[in-house]
What does this fold into?
Amino acid sequence: MNALEFVIDEVRYAVPLARVVEVLPRVALTPLPGAPSVVAGVFNHRGSPTVAVDLRARLGHPARAPSLDDHLLVARAQRRPVDLVVDRVQGLHTFDTDAVTPAVVASPHVAGVVVDAGGVLVIEDLDAVLSLDEDRAIDRGLEDLARACGPSRPHFVTSLARRPARASGWS
It folds into this structure.
């Protein structure tokens, strides 16, 4: 399996490379009304809104101020494109899918772990990063933002909820 490795608080994580759209430097995020606490905000990614998920909050890491050194990892989840706010992207990592074992502590958004020469690599389940309830709250927030922006920018804030995530390939 090919994966993109990233770090939060020196803990190694990875997502399947086939689901990664691109890696960006940190940008300013627009707060999303009524969004779950794990949503850092939304930003315009190539003409479409992309929800930025604060993986620090999701994974239980301590909060810290945004840094210009942070990366935004844009990926395709099952229900919507998501942007993962991470400390830094490390690079490509290849391992056998047989090397993935269940996490010692069950977590709905962790697909498993790989132990290698660098230590433990936690494999994130992109389809479980946001719960169905969180997804619905995001849709409501996007609708509220669309109303607040008025007709001048309706596409930016409404197209995300309507835009299906692609199963594979690069955008």
The two ends are 20 Å apart (CA to CA).
